[in-house]
Specification:
Elements lengths: L1 H21 L10 H19 L3 H24 L1 H7 L12 H19 L9
Helix pairs in contact: 1-2, 1-3, 1-5, 2-3, 3-4, 3-5
């Protein structure tokens, strides 16, 4: 499951990073160059682990990045200016303005965490 999640989420982050360069306010997101680069880096690692990495590496990635993105989404609601500053926003933003971004981070983080915590399937013995 972790390798599949890396593949799916890798494509998701790749698309988000590329679209962010073309349409910075797509669907209400507040995208910056810093965030696009982070998304593309996340996509690169996730896709590599999803297609060529070991199951253990994919699970570790899912757990670490899942926790990171989940916390980023939560902090976006609690301390929006801190998150906005970390992600390169030139002006302060409210948690209301960051709601689409925060929800994306929470959903992505949750998906990564669930995939990382799911036990690998055991091969059936004949």
């Amino acid at each position: 499951m972790a390798r599949t999640a890396c593949r799916v989420m890798g494509v998701t982050f790749l698309v988000a990073g590329l679209v962010g360069f073309v349409q910075p306010h797509f669907l209400g997101f507040h995208v910056t160059t810093v965030r696009n680069v982070i998304y593309l880096a996340t996509a690169a690692v996730a896709l590599y682990l999803g297609f060529a990495g070991t199951l253990t590496a994919a699970r570790t990635f899912c757990l670490v990045f899942g926790a990171t993105y989940l916390l980023l989404g939560i902090f976006g609601f609690v301390a929006p200016n801190l998150v906005a500053g970390l992600l390169g926003h030139p002006e302060p933003l409210t948690s209301g303005e960051l709601t689409p971004d925060n929800l994306f981070h929470i959903v992505a983080g949750g998906a990564f965490l669930v995939a990382g915590m799911k036990a690998p399937a055991v091969a059936a013995r004949l």
